[in-house]
Amino acid sequence: MKSKITKKFEELKGKDQKALITYITAGDPTIKDTEELVYSMEKAGADIIELGIPYSDPLADGPVIQRAAQRALENHINIDDIFEMVKRIRKNTEIPLAFLLYYNSILRYGIEKFIENCRESGMDGLIIADLPLEERIGFKSALKDTGVDLIPLVAPTSRERIKNIVEGSGGFIYCVSSLGVTGTRSSFSEDIEEFLGTVAKYTDVPRAIGFGISNPDAIRQLKGYCEGVIVGSAIIKKIEEGIKDGTHVSKVQEFVSELKSAVLE
Q1: For residue range 176-203, what is the model confidence (pLDDT) as tens digits?
Q2: What does the alpha-carbon distance between residue 146 and residue 246 come to, in Å, rounded to a whole number?
């Protein structure tokens, strides 16, 4: 069963285009806003959208995404609210959606129940930031025939580890541009080309690069090495800038439109 994420990458490959993947935190500043942001980002050209499930102790997140999670948690957002929102979104759009979350959130919710709700609500992918390598096989088999991809996060570590992480993956490979937390960066390691080449040696699954991509220039710099680019913190900064005067949705739409132009150049 081909997932919507796989189909999207195939469609883009047929047009000789790269994927623009955007990230927002579900419930920041409200669930209703998240829904509107999904539609506005799709309109602006996002190909795939990642929805972060807010967590109180986010180890891989930089300060911008931590603040977004805090705003959502202050609104008492829970996973059931997020699943209900996804069901509403699915009545209006088929854009591929992936959750980015921490393993503990799934364990607390219940693995079987979580996977079943992903399938029922129409989610297409799961990116579990801290899923131990040894748990991947069991988790992957639990997702079999659900149409939900288990998307691995892979950092520039040893070749053997990269090989083990990407083996049998689906959707796309989330390639971390550098070790550390999420956030924006002004430059990228020259080793990135070698790292992405190593990933490609062990899998045909599309590679999308994230962590630190904050503007059209960064996209221009990196898009030649991969099949997709991921932008998160920079979008959340636009939300922060516009919350007070209610311009956050239009600010994000305008910014995503600029990012898309860089992808298409």
Answers
A1: 987 555 555 555 666 888 899 999 999 9
A2: 38
Tens digit of pLDDT for each residue in 75-116? 999 999 999 999 999 999 999 999 999 999 999 999 999 999
Structural domain including 246 reads 4-264
CB contact at 8 A, 109 and 119 = no
Q: Is 98 helix (H, G, I), strand (E, B) or coil?
A: strand
DSSP state of 212: B
What CA–CA distance (Å, rounded) separates 201 from 184? 28
Q: Which of 28, 50, 149, 227 is catalytic?
A: 50
Q: How far apart are the first and last CA of the chain?
A: 33
Beta strands in the chain (DSSP E): 19-25, 48-52, 97-101, 125-128, 149-150, 153-154, 173-176, 207-210, 228-231
Q: Is 61 a catalytic residue?
A: yes
From residue 64, give the alpha-carbon distance in Å to each of 51, 104, 148.
15, 21, 28
pTM of the model: 0.95
Contact yes or no for 46/65 (Cβ under 8 A): no
The structural domain count of the chain equals 1
Could you give the C-alpha distances from 171 to 75, 98, 221, in angstroms and in order? 31, 10, 23
CATH number at residue 101: 3.20.20.70
CA dihedral (193, 199, 201, 203) positive or negative: negative
Nearest partner of 53 among 91, 97, 96, 16, judged by Cα: 97
Q: CA 184, CA 232: separation in Å to the nearest integer?
A: 9
45 CB neighbour count, 10 Å cutoff: 17
Whether 204 sits among the annotated catalytic residues: the reply is no
| Sequence letter at residue 181 | V
